[in-house]
Amino acid sequence: MSRFESRAYKVSVVSLMVALVAVFELINRAMPLRVPWGMSIDFVALPVVLAFFVLGTRYSMITAIGMYLILTVFGFANFVGATMKFFSTIVMVAVLGIFASRWAKGEGPKIFPLPILLVASVAAIAFRCLVAAALNYYWAIPLFLSMPIEDVINTMFFGSIWGFIVFVFVMNTTQGVIDLAVGWFIAFSASFPRRGRGLTSASASTSRVSSGR
């Protein structure tokens, strides 16, 4: 069994990812890029997506639970912000997991064919936007701002529900692209090639032995 498949390796990676959530939240609080009700553009959910590409859906979900607990304790919007970040991220992981069950089976790193990765990413971001819009409209914004959603829309979105929808979709699309693109790039450049080089080196060594060189 390779170290990539060992339980100790997986526990170590998940622990590192959860720790990174705390680091990114501290950075987010020091240099915030957020709207009045707590939605922000940040890297807080990046470790969850990275855990998916490196370890798979199950361990990504565990990392997401760790993220939720950390954001609930000392996140900017506490319970509301933690819940929004959790569900908007977990829905992307779930959609990616569905695609992985067909094109990247088994545990461990999820290496998709590029066209499938692009389709999966679009689907994941689309579902994220729908879930975020619904949660913001019916729950998060009225609760966080203590205002009826109609008053919020009249105040911040010029009285247009479409202005609200476009704003939420743009914010979540931007965040989704950041999470998926950066997560995939880090996982691919830092983990997959290393495994590939190791396999290639092992194959080359076996070839030299068998040929007497």
Structure description:
Helix 1 runs antiparallel to helix 2, helix 2 (about 45-55) packs antiparallel against helix 3 and helix 4 (about 80-105) runs antiparallel to helix 5 (about 115-145). It is built from eight helices and no strands. It is mostly helical. The protein has one domain (about 5-185): Arp2/3 complex 21 kDa subunit ARPC3 (Orthogonal Bundle), CATH 1.10.1760.
How do the helices and strands line up, and which of them pair or pack?
Blueprint: H1 7-30, H2 46-55, H3 57-74, H4 78-103, H5 114-145, H6 149-156, H7 161-190, H8 192-211
Helix pairs in contact: 1-2, 1-3, 2-3, 2-7, 3-4, 4-5, 5-7
The number of domains: 1
Radius of gyration: 20 Å
| Percent helix | over 70%
Q: In percent, how much strand structure appears in the residues?
A: under 5%
Structural class: mainly alpha
Q: What does the overall shape look like? A: globular
CATH topology: Arp2/3 complex 21 kDa subunit ARPC3
Mean residue pLDDT: 85
In total, how many beta strands? 0
The second-level CATH architecture is Orthogonal Bundle
For the record, the CATH class is Mainly Alpha
- Low-confidence stretches are 192-213
Descriptive labels:
213 residues, mainly alpha, Arp2/3 complex 21 kDa subunit ARPC3, globular
